[in-house]
Write a structure and sequence with these properties.
This protein has 92 residues and is α+β, with helices and mostly antiparallel strands. It folds into two domains: 40 residues; 45 residues, Irregular (HU Protein, Chain A), CATH 4.10.520.10. It is built from three helices and five strands, in the order ααβββββα. The strands form two sheets. Strands 1-2-5 form a three-stranded antiparallel sheet. Strands 3-4 form a two-stranded antiparallel ribbon. A hairpin with a 3-residue loop joins strand 1 and strand 2. Helix 1 crosses helix 2. The radius of gyration is 19 Å and the shape is elongated.
């Protein structure tokens, strides 16, 4: 499911205009993004949690040339799936 499909599903489920559903989805994603930029952890019960992980810099190697390169420290968003979702997906 992509973002536009999510908007359509929300509009259908809640009997909303597509524009209103789009505003709701954009607000939720926008606020989640802003919280992560501020370094906050975001938890959605039953789904999982989002946080920003910090990675130290290190010396890497260019696989093509073998040249040693310096990889800069970085911060990346990270999603950890919740127990409930994990159990619901792993049903056989």
């Amino acid at each position: 499911m992509n973002k536009s499909q999510l908007i359509e599903a929300l509009a259908k489920e809640e009997n909303l205009a597509i524009k209103k559903a789009e505003d709701v989805v954009n607000t939720v994603f926008g606020d989640l993004e802003k919280a992560l930029i501020r370094g906050e952890r975001v938890e959605v019960r039953g789904l999982g949690s989002f946080k920003v992980k910090t990675y130290d810099g290190y010396k890497g190697r260019n696989p093509k040339t073998g040249e040693v390169i310096e990889v800069a420290p970085k911060k990346l968003p990270f999603f950890k799936v919740g127990k409930e979702l994990k159990e619901r997906v792993d049903v056989d």
